[in-house]
Amino acid sequence: MTTLQLAWQSLRSRKFTSGLTIFSIGLSVMLLVGVDRIRQGAQVGFEGTLSQTDLVVGARGGSLPLLLYAVFHIGTANNEISWDTYQHFAHHPAVLWTIPLAMGDSHRGFRVVATDDNFYQHYRYRGDHSLQMAQGSRAEGIFDAVLGSAVASQLHYHLGQKIVLSHGLEASFIRHTADPYTVVGILARTATPVDRAIYITLRGDEAMHYGWQNGAPPLQPVPESQISPADLQIKTISAFLLRTRSRIGTLFLQREINTYKPEPLTAIIPAFTLEDLWKVLSAADVALSLVSGAVLVVGLLVMLTALYTSLNERRREIAVLRTIGLNARQIFTLFILESALISAVGAAFGLAAAYFVLLVARIPVENNYGIPLAMVGLSARTAVYLGCVVAAGALLGFIPAMRAYRNALVDGLNAG
Questions:
Q1: Is 405 a residue whose pLDDT tops 70?
Q2: Beta bridge partner(s), residue 146
Q3: pTM for the structure as a whole
């Protein structure tokens, strides 16, 4: 029997103690690896939310708030963009396509987004994935609505359902009860914030606020039957997405938009602004990693304590091993292998647990919080973590190994 096999059998003979130690190290590794995998999974998920869009344009303001409310439906717009300004850039020679977005209303906690057919035709996520209808068709009528998959599943809505939208985003007391919308379509799941929104037409957004003056509703709501499409003139939108005809033209167009004289605008490149977001969140990532690392140190110290305190109980075992032919160096190696095995098994258990938790939590997190989590493979950072855990476990094994090495054969035979 080799020393490695002997170490494994020794651990099996102490299943309860070894199991608790492995569990504590595994839990520590799960936290450490889980933080890293969730961080990278969220990063990949966020980056995959919007593809093939070169610029996001909104009213003058911060780059990060613009990206958050226009793409991830977090926060609100500081100001609006006039329809004339949007039309100017929609027909710009350097622009291939645009997607207008008007936001400001909600339904039971879900964002309402007014847009047009360009959204269904040009919006891309995770490379070249386009939006698909799981049921029904696109919103075309003034009071048509299309639901994201998370909205439909959580509210248990179906085609033909009548829904009443609310003014504002948080528990508004103003509800557009005079003009309920009809669900005509449900989008297929995308695992992006698209799933957590309700989509109507731009004219539908104008109809919802028909007769309003200075942000206040009319005393008598105007019913659908009295609203004519000819009376609906789109005045403003919240933001728009665009794609340029060439990569070179993107920077020139961004500068042109940012210096547009008739109206103050901000144009951002989504990928660059996401980098700013990761920089903002890097401090939280470091803090969580430090906490997880501290937990791991505690787990390794538990292993050291378990091995060291068991030496008195194992003095006779060590003496017998010496008697049957194992020399002091092999006894020393045996203890090193035991601690390395505990660390390796604990690391493997923690890694598997981290991916299991990520797999189980991914869809609920995406549906309930709109945070896309991608399943990502091992990274160099994770491999370093696992290697450090095994190496640290082996190094800590030197302490009980040295004491076992010094135990004399006679001391072992006389014990107990």
A1: no
A2: 185, 199
A3: 0.73
